[in-house]
């Protein structure tokens, strides 16, 4: 196991998580860690349990057994909002912007738990990374293009000054050029010291920037390790990388 | 790098292949599986046999009347189940269709109308007209989600009541009371037993029809619609037509129920078709398990039985204390806890009674409503203050009202207590309070108390067992 | 033209309409945030009317109030708002929250049960007789505006003004405050709102409190200007409130206001004219028919309501 050897203290840890939908056992004994400042990717095909893992981390779906630990604190019984308070932020799948509200209002909602005094500073910081968003701040979020929405969603998450940023399928539904741009920003955010957990189907791009990776299949972690090693793994290449 | 050997292959998700192994293995899960495996024909037979032998067992007119009413309500519940259980539409105007069927009978077979159609003509004609009425009522909300349908149907019920009470041709609140008995092929149905068998015949026909309908393409489409309207629409199902159809079928069955109910009563009154009836039918559908023919029928019989027993204060007390005791035994774990709590409640009550008798005798000077053995027993246990209930049955002072509100609040609060032992401990005074409120407030007005209990039943069922007694749990994937 | 009658009906309609608007607002807010038809909303109004009646009796009754009239009225409204606010919170907590993930019909049936439970509890405790606020003893019917054909009793003005003030307050709350922003976000996408750190449950509780408090206030206002109250009154007001919300565009605040006024006016004028128009065949009880036809008309021609946007389904 490469995780424990001198890796930074874990910011997020799942311990033996089992999740059910009704009688159906979905996640089976999932263990997962993200260290301070680490960029970890979670790979898997459609319906491999990626989204359920994310929902378990966020507290949308309660696990039957196992623990979710954030920065040493057991948050398994906490509501989503309380977990966010512990330094989480998320860029959800399909962005999930608040369509009938303006871009500025969306960003302000991202900073919902931040003190009002910091708002201006946070906004400026986000506008600096996404100058394009600044120009659109008065526009309704629902009227933006897909690429713009992706930027607003990332900006909104950064407004919370997260310690750990969760990204659910950042490449979904974006043109290749925008995927590249998204991952550049992810790298940029990562280099600023923010830990990231990127949930992706696109193994190639995500492994190329990640420190470590996990592979999920039918609700189990079937493979984990350094990204540099995973990218050379025979079976994984066959399954996800197309050769 | 680690790679457990028995794990699924990378990139291959085998949910279907591994589904059996992923099923929960519990006693409840197995019982459910057994129930699901029982052939439908067996279940259907189990449904009809008890009804067929009922008349052999009873010899009083009163019970026979209850039997006829029960069958009518079973039909109603079956009809409502089509919209509510199978398609998931909230039809709040349903009882108006029941009323429409009954008043249409009055329109084709009464001295008032001056017509006397044969039942073989009248009942099918009524069923079809009421189904058409149901179709028309559902029509305006054709483009919309079920919620709008609920508002339109609720409003329709209101209008229906306005018409019944204010229009001259319905004779207002006095109703129409000179109905002709049901005629079948020229022969009049004269006895209650006769009505019972006619209703039973309709029950068999309708249950078989519904059974086949449920298995048909339409039945499958309805279920698909209930689970996911959008997906159903994308699969090119005619969503609106399916909804309207369910609506019309339900209304038609209600029409038949009305057409049987009217002659068995000999008269029709607006009060027989108001919102109280609506809620009762909803409770029937939900209690047994919306969506299941067997469940709905069982629910209807149970509710009818309970409502009938609640008419008499002494019987009502048996039901009340019995249901509380059985409910606790069934729900509390470990097994010995429920008897312990009940015993503690009895002791607690005797203590409180004793204290009250010494400190403020006026608190125990009244007497409970009933006169049977159980009432005498209870009399020396609960607090029955002198004059707590006025001559009209209403609480006379603030004390009884506060006790009632206190009971509601404490029962609700009790559901929030997580710790099992603390909850069991708190249950003792709450149960005693419940007994006091039952004897002083609820028993004084059994007619109202019945409906308070039905309201509470609906809420509690939805919160704890939304699939009803016999229904299957549906899982919403989030 | 009988101007006196028209002006009178106009005043009646506006009074009634402002009550409907308050009901529609609470109903619409809850629908917006939970997508739930709160069928018990009318019964909350009824409880508000009874609380107001209780406070009135407790402070000496209409003939001999122990405090100044305006203090009495304020206390009645505030007590009803607080009481109903907490009632609404309790309804949400015990009847709706356990059902967030249940099939859509489950909370509706639960709502039906709550409505029925409240109605019959009040019947059980207070009986079926109508109770009166006797507000003509409280404020003389001659006090008010008298200007040409316009004769408006001051209590009616109070009712309209306070309803308007509450609506404005709500509008400011929803558009200008942090809570309002959280409410709109939760209404649009509950899960995404939670991901922003919004405590969705608390937002929902606050929404229920505010909506139910408005219904409670409406209950007292009804008692003040329309006199008598009983356990079943919530049904009619709830129904008209729902209709107003649908006609105005469910989920929209200005929609609820305009819908309420429209339904109020329609009802007042049909009460006034239905006998003339139908040559005496239909009595004033049939004014509901007119309101129903308006509802059907909107369903057929503009199902999203006056202020609603076309319903875009999220796939």
Description:
The complex is a heterotrimer of chains A (243), B (478) and C (315). With 243 residues, chain A is α/β, with parallel strands linked by helices. Chain A has a domain at 1-87 and 199-243: Rossmann fold. Chain A has helices at residues 50-58, 80-85, 103-110, 119-129, 131-135, 146-158, 176-191, 203-209, 227-230, 234-241; strands spanning 10-21, 24-35, 39-43, 65-70, 73-74, 88-91, 164-168, 195-200, 212-217, 220-226. In chain A, the strands form two sheets. A six-stranded mixed beta sheet of chain A has the order 6-7-8-3-9-10, sandwiched between helices. A four-stranded antiparallel beta sheet of chain A has the order 2-1-4-5, with helices on one face. In chain A, helix 3 runs parallel beside helix 6 (146-158). The radius of gyration of chain A is 18 Å and the shape is globular. The two termini of chain A are 26 Å apart. In chain A, 49% of the residues are buried. In chain B, the strands form two sheets. Chain B has a two-stranded antiparallel ribbon with strand order 1-2. In chain B, a hairpin with a 4-residue loop joins strand 1 (109-110) and strand 2. Chain C has helices spanning 3-34, 41-58, 69-96, 105-126, 135-138, 154-176, 178-188, 190-195, 200-226, 233-248, 253-277, 287-301; strands spanning 131-132, 144-147, 150-153, 228-229. In chain C, the strands form two sheets. A two-stranded antiparallel sheet of chain C has the order 1-4. In chain C, strands 2-3 form a two-stranded antiparallel ribbon. Chains in contact: A-B, A-C, B-C. At the B-C interface, helix 6, helix 11, helix 16 and helix 18 of B face helix 3, helix 4, helix 10 and helix 12 of C.
List keywords for this structure.
heterotrimer, A: 243 residues, alpha/beta, Rossmann fold, six-stranded mixed beta sheet, four-stranded antiparallel beta sheet, 10 strands, 27% strand, globular, C: 315 residues, two-stranded antiparallel ribbon, 72% helix, disordered C terminus
3D shape of chain C:
globular
Q: Report the helical percentage of chain A.
A: 25-40%
CATH class of the domain at 1-87 and 199-243 in chain A: Alpha Beta
CATH architecture of the domain at 1-87 and 199-243 in chain A: 3-Layer(aba) Sandwich
Global geometry of chain A: globular
Low-confidence stretches of chain A: 1-7
Structural class of chain C: mainly alpha
Q: Could you give the order of the helices and strands of chain A?
A: EEEHEEHEHHHHEHEHEEHH
- The whole-number mean of residue pLDDT values of chain C reads 90
Q: Counting H and I runs of at least 4 residues, what is the number of helices of chain C? A: 12
The profile of the biggest β sheet of chain C is: 2 strands, antiparallel
Oligomeric form of this entry? heterotrimer
* Count of alpha/pi helices of chain A: 10
Number of domains of chain C: 1
């Amino acid at each position: 196991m490469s995780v424990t050897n001198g890796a930074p203290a874990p910011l997020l840890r799942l311990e033996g998580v089992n999740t059910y939908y009704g009688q159906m056992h979905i996640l089976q004994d999932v263990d997962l860690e993200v260290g301070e400042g680490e960029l970890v990717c979670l790979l898997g095909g459609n319906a491999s349990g990626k989204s359920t893992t994310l929902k378990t981390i966020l507290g949308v779906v309660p696990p039957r057994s196992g623990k979710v630990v954030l920065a040493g604190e057991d948050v398994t019984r906490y509501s989503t909002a309380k977990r966010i308070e512990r330094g989480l932020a998320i860029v959800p799948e399909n962005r999930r912007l608040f369509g009938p509200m303006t871009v500025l209002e969306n960003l302000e909602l991202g900073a919902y738990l931040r003190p009002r005094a910091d708002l201006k500073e946070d906004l400026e910081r986000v506008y600096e990374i996404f100058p394009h968003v600044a120009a659109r701040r008065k526009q309704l979020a629902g009227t933006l293009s897909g690429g713009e929405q992706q930027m607003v969603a990332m900006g909104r998450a950064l407004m919370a000054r997260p310690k750990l940023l969760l990204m659910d399928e950042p490449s979904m539904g974006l043109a290749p050029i925008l995927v590249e741009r998204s991952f550049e920003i992810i790298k940029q955010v990562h280099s600023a010291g923010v830990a990231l957990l990127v949930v992706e189907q696109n193994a190639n791009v995500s492994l190329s920037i990640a420190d470590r990776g996990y592979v999920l299949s039918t609700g189990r972690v079937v493979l984990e390790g350094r990204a540099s090693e995973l990218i050379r793994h025979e079976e994984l290449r066959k399954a996800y990388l197309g050769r | 790098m680690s790679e457990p050997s028995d794990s699924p292959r990378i990139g291959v998700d085998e949910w279907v292949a591994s589904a059996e192994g992923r099923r929960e293995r519990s006693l409840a899960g197995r019982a459910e599986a057994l129930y699901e495996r029982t052939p439908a024909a067996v279940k259907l037979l189990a449904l009809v046999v008890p009804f067929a032998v009922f008349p052999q067992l009873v010899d009083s007119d009163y019970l026979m009347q209850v039997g006829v009413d029960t069958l009518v309500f079973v039909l109603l519940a079956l009809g409502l189940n089509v919209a509510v259980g199978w398609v998931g539409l909230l039809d709040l105007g349903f009882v108006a269709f029941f009323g429409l069927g009954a008043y249409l009978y009055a329109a084709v077979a009464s001295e008032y109308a001056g017509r006397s159609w044969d039942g073989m003509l009248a009942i099918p004609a009524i069923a079809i007209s009421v189904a058409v009425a149901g179709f028309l009522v559902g029509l305006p909300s054709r483009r919309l989600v079920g919620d709008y349908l609920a508002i339109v149907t609720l409003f329709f019920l209101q209008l229906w009541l306005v018409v019944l009470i204010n229009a001259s041709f319905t004779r207002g609140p006095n109703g129409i009371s000179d109905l002709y008995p049901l005629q079948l092929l020229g022969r009049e149905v004269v006895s209650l037993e006769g009505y019972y068998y006619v209703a039973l015949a309709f029950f068999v026909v309708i249950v078989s029809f519904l059974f086949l309908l449920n298995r048909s393409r339409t039945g499958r489409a309805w279920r698909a619609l209930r689970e996911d309207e959008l997906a159903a629409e994308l699969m090119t199902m005619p969503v609106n037509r399916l909804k309207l159809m369910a609506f019309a079928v339900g209304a038609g069955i209600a029409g038949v129920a009305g057409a049987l109910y009217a002659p068995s009563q000999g008269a029709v009154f607006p009060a027989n078709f108001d919102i109280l009836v609506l809620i009762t039918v909803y409770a029937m559908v939900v209690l047994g398990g919306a969506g299941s023919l067997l469940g709905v029928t069982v629910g209807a019989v149970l509710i009818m039985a309970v409502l009938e027993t609640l008419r008499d204060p002494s019987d009502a007390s048996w039901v009340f204390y019995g249901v509380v005791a059985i409910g606790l035994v069934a729900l509390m774990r470990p097994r010995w806890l429920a008897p312990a709590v009940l015993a503690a409640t009895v002791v607690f009550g005797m203590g409180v009674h004793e204290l009250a008798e010494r400190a403020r005798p006026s608190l125990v000077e009244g007497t409970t409503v009933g006169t049977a053995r159980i009432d005498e027993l209870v009399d020396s246990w609960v607090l029955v203050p002198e004059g707590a209930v006025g001559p009209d049955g209403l609480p006379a002072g603030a004390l009884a009202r506060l006790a009632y509100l206190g009971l509601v609040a404490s029962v609700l609060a009790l559901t929030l207590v997580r710790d099992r032992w603390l909850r069991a401990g708190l249950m003792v005074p709450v149960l005693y309070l419940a007994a006091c409120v039952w004897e002083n407030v609820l028993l004084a007005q059994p007619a109202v108390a019945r409906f308070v209990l039905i309201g509470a039943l609906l809420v509690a069922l939805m919160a704890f067992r939304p699939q009803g007694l016999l229904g299957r749990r549906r899982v919403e994937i989030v | 033209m009988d101007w006196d009658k028209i002006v009178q009906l106009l005043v009646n309609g506006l009074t009634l309409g402002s009550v409907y608007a308050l009901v529609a607002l609470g109903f619409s807010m809850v629908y917006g945030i939970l997508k739930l038809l709160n069928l018990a909303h009318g019964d909350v109004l009824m409880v508000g009317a009874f609380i107001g009646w209780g406070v009135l009796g407790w402070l000496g009754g209409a003939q001999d109030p122990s405090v100044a009239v305006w203090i009495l009225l304020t206390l009645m409204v505030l007590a009803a708002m607080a009481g109903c606010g907490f009632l609404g919170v309790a309804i949400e907590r015990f009847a709706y929250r356990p059902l967030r993930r249940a099939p859509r019909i489950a909370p509706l049936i639960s709502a039906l049960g709550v409505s029925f439970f409240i109605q019959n509890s009040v019947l059980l405790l207070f009986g079926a007789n109508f109770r009166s606020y006797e507000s003509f003893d409280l404020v003389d019917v001659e006090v008010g505006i008298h200007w040409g054909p316009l004769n408006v009793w001051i209590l009616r003005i109070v009712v309209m003004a306070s309803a308007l003030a509450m609506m404005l307050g709500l509008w400011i709350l929803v558009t200008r405050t942090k809570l309002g922003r959280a409410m709109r976000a939760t209404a649009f996408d509950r899960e995404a709102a939670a991901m922003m750190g919004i405590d969705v449950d608390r937002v929902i509780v606050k929404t229920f409190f505010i909506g139910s408090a408005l219904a409670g206030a409406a209950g007292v206002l009804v008692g003040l200007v329309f006199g008598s109250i009983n356990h079943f009154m919530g049904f009619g007001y709830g129904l008209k409130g729902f209709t107003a919300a649908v006609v105005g565009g469910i989920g929209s605040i200005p929609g609820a206001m305009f819908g309420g006024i429209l339904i109020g006016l329609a009802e007042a004028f049909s009460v006034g004219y239905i006998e003339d128009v139908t040559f005496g065949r239909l009595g004033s009880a049939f004014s509901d028919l007119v309101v129903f036809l308006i509802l059907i008309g909107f369903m057929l021609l503009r199902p999203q309501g006056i202020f609603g946007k076309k319903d875009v389904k999220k796939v």
